[in-house]
Amino acid sequence: MSKQPPRPAIATAERRSGEDRRRRDGANPKGAERRRSIEPRGPEVSEVALPPEEWQRLYGKKPPTR
Known about the structure:
The structure is a single chain. This protein has one helix at 52-59. The protein is largely without helices or strands.
């Protein structure tokens, strides 16, 4: 026999609307956002040229020709 957990003394109103927010097409939030400053969203990427010997050591085959 399992015991039921005690019920809260005060009845609280349901805070969830049951509506999925992703189904609505709303505008951007107004006012201050949580982020205080703008930070980069992704890493910085740069292209590096590898000598053919280094390419072959890393990948085990000759580099592709352009």
